[in-house]
Amino acid sequence: AMNFFAGLLLLLMPEENAF
């Protein structure tokens, strides 16, 4: 589940690699 949200966040904000 976390991977799904992480992927969406990375796609939406590739510049902000908070992960």
> What proportion of the residues form beta strands (DSSP E)?
under 5%
Rg calc: 7 Å
Shape: elongated
In sequence order, what are the helices and strands, one letter per element?
A: H
Instruction: Give the terminus-to-terminus CA distance.
Output: 15 Å
Structural class determined from secondary elements: mainly alpha
Q: Give the total of beta strands.
A: 0
* Low-pLDDT segments, ≥5 res: none
Number of helices: 1
**Largest sheet data:** none
Helix content: 55-70%
Question: What is the residue-averaged pLDDT?
Answer: 71
Description of the molecule:
This protein is 58% helix and 0% strand. The model has no long low-confidence stretch (mean pLDDT 71). By secondary structure, the chain is mostly helical.
Topology (elements, then pairings):
Layout lengths: L1 H11 L7
In short:
The chain is mainly α. Helix content is 58%, strand content 0%. It has one helix spanning 2-12.
Name the descriptors.
mainly alpha, 19 residues, single chain, 1 helix
